[in-house]
Design a protein that fits this description.
Blueprint (H helix, E strand, L loop, with lengths): L5 H24 L5 H22 L11 H22 L5 H9 L1 H12 L7 H18 L12 H24 L5 H24 L7 H28 L2 H4 L2 H17 L7 H15 L1 H13 L3
Amino acid sequence: MPNIAPRYWLMIAILGFVWGGTFLLIKLALEGTTPFWLAASRIGFAALLLCAIWGIRGFKLFKGHTNWPSLILIGVLSTALPFMLISWGQQHVSSGFTGVSMAAIPLMVLPLAHVFIPGEQMTLRRLIGFCIGFVGVALLIGGKAFTSSGSELESYGRAACLSSAACYSVSSILTRRLPPVDPLGLAAILLVIGSTIIVPVAWMAEGAPVVPDNRTLLIAAVLGLIPTAAANLLRVIVVREAGPTFMTLTNYQVPIWAVVLGAVFLGEELPPSMLLAMTLILGGLGLSQFGRLKRLFGGMQGHNP
């Protein structure tokens, strides 16, 4: 198991916080726009922003052998398809089920990485740690995660949410297996691919876009800038350099931040199981990454005067 530099731990901490706060911003933005056009606007804005920076750097992408088929597939699986699946699925399932679906990503990535990524072998300790973390997320979300929504299409909605988690899992594996590539160019082109798909779908599903109010525009711009453009660049760097299994540690952080930020800014009640859930989540992550954490803190102590 390779050592993970401190900067990657910082990156996944930032990603967990940023993506946890995304649910709050989406909830506010949907007061002034529709789900598909919100997704299309944030992906499109992020694509334009990263492409502008990428262009200044000369539009460099692959550093040798090219693999465009995989790149197109990753673009579909990492943005457009899961966004559409979640947007449709959330109409027919409880809100908590979507959170549990995203928490299942580490459990999906683990066997895939074991088979397809050298050096990412699945160990019993890592599997137990991820399972403990998943239980912590389910406890944090509570019984509403598994209560019925009453929709006739609930089973299909649940399948859509789990399929979106599978999309993210497979895209992480494919991203790691790409030949040498510029991270900024990769993040930009993936968002371009996603936007070319989701914009026409949004038009067909929700009609022509309507210019929202200034508050909604500002929130959409923030969503495009931080949790889409900047966070996708960080995601590419972490997956490429630290591995897809390590990247999944963000999926257990996101529900914690979503609950905390919802309580702080929306006045939502903190669940009574919050402390126990956080203990399970952090304990599970610590167990799954015990060797890496030991080497990380051992290295820090070794540098003390």
